[in-house]
Amino acid sequence: MTRTTPFNLSALVLAVALLSQPALAQSDVTADDQALTELEALANSESQPQTLPSLPELFARALRHDSDLTRQRYELDATQEEVPMARSQLLPQISATGGYLWQDSTNIQTVGDEDLGQPATRPGEIDETYYQVQLQQPLFSLERWRKMDVASAQVSAAELQLAVVEQELAIQVSEAYVKAYLAAQRSGLLEAQQKSLDLQVRQASRAFDLGVGNRVDLLEAQSRYDQAVSDAVEAENELDNALSELERLTGVMPEFQSSAPGELTTVTLNNDIGDPEAWIARTNQNLNVLYASEEQQVVQADSSVRRSGYYPELNLNLSYSDRVSDDELRESEDYRASVELSVPIYRGGYTNASVRQGEKRIEAGLAALDNERNLAIQEVRQRIRALNGGERRLEALNQAISSSQLFLDAAERGEQLGLRDLVDVLDARASLYDQRIQYVDTVGNYALDTLALHAAVGSLESDDLARIMALLASMSTSAQVAR
């Protein structure tokens, strides 16, 4: 839709002077009723309200639907079982055994010896049953105690890993949401451009038919119209891809209406980003940094378990057994209590190698932690630069759009006066729509950079998603936000 800009005094004087030269003037072609009706419909279509899907609601759906997040939850539940498993090694271990024995023996005790005059004293064939209950209680086992620390560290790491996956899911949903919204806006702008060019083609065709236009202008207008159709098809494909990604993540297909944005000057940005050093100081709360730190705790606890291989173990053993047999000499009922001390002396160098391996893994974990810190700091710096650059770019584009609108108005007036041809008008119109598309894309990138900045310091929340949705809605004065 073309925006009319009032002429100043000098422009009015110039127009009067040009109108006084009929030799340079070109006859105007009056638009027909259908063209005027379509132009009015085009103007009205841009003022229709647009309802945006709720980004926090889509993220809430993704939390319930995403299969990778569900898998991570089950992984956390499985890891939490490490704690009772490690604790069980410190508690008494009770076992019960039993058995049945049939035996047929032939020896001097079971058959006797006639030559020696020794009779059989024990039965040769016996049935026997036996039962035993045994209890073992570790009195001192440094390895088993330290495995408790390993289990606790593993659970903490798994909880942070789940938080990392949830944050990544929020970023994925937000990216797909922003891409869908931007694609819908581009599609609306291109559709408006397409309708405008269609009217331009009809006017050029009518001027050519009346003999006041030329074929070059008609072909140029048709070429620009065909290019706008091609760009609109590409924007629709991008919108379908973004919606498909949202459906994969959330399980629902939200609806984004293809409509051109309203007055772009209504976009409000958070110009107060703050001190970059203050953001960098918060990178210790970055979820990837915290996860790397917890992984380091797991490795250190595991290294302590390895070192415990140098220490002895002390166990208390209690047992009760009962044997019932046809052979009275085999029958017994036993109660036993013992204390066993096990001292590792030599295992072929296994313990030393295991300790060295643990120390190397500690060093590797420290390097991984430093790397995550550096990545978080670099991410903060890049996002702050992108946000500052985005603000300056939006200011420049806003000024460029205003200038392009004035140039389009002047080109249309010049074309009516015969000072400009249709190609100049088409170039001015294409430049205006291209700048508006760049403005929309820049706002989308600004929104994603804002989310990424909060994610880099571990402060991404649902309120941030709501603010991003409000930012996108501010590009159109008629946009409505779904609650």
Automatic annotation (TrEMBL):
Keyword Transport among UniProt keywords: yes
Localization per Swiss-Prot or TrEMBL: Cell outer membrane
Molecular function per GO: efflux transmembrane transporter activity; porin activity
A Pfam family assignment: OEP
Any Gene Ontology CC annotation: cell outer membrane
Ribosomal protein among keywords: no
Keywords: Cell outer membrane, Membrane, Transmembrane, Transmembrane beta strand, Transport
Domain of life: Bacteria
Family: Belongs to the outer membrane factor (OMF) (TC 1.B.17) family.
Name of the protein this chain belongs to: Outer membrane protein TolC
